[in-house]
Design brief:
Elements: E1 2-4, H1 8-24, E2 27-29, E3 32-34, E4 39-45, H2 57-74, E5 78-84, H3 91-99, H4 101-106, E6 110-114
Parallel strand pairs: 1-4, 4-5
Antiparallel strand pairs: 2-3, 5-6
């Protein structure tokens, strides 16, 4: 999920609402109820970087996708946000985030919020 022009907290709240809605409502199929779970990865757009124009829509969607995989690794019914770290990302930092968001977090390049 990419939340354009949303605050970090607003994107987090939306992600948590999606997870809770899917978890709490049965899905009907051929008169049978099924309860499902979901995981959500999110980040804001535009994303902070050394040169914000370097980060296009595709890269930010890839960031959100990386956050989704971090959520799936953490278990069911999770939301993970990928947020800018303390310093702007240069191109090498962007490459590292795209390659492995968890490792990029350990290196202090980004922040991952887990719910």
């Amino acid at each position: 999920m990419v939340a354009p022009d949303s605050s970090v907290e607003g994107a987090r709240e939306l992600a948590l609402r999606i997870v809770e809605t899917v978890r709490s409502r049965p899905f009907l199929l051929e008169e049978r109820e099924f309860f499902l779970t979901c995981s959500v990865g999110y980040c804001g757009f535009p994303f902070s970087s050394e040169n914000a124009t370097d980060l296009g829509w595709n890269e930010v969607v890839q960031f959100a996708d990386g956050a989704l995989y971090e959520a799936k690794r953490a278990g069911k019914n999770r939301a993970v946000g990928l947020l800018s770290g303390p310093s702007p990302l240069n191109r090498e930092g962007v490459r590292r985030v795209l390659q492995d968001p968890g490792k990029a977090e350990q290196q202090g390049l980004i922040l991952l919020t887990r719910s």
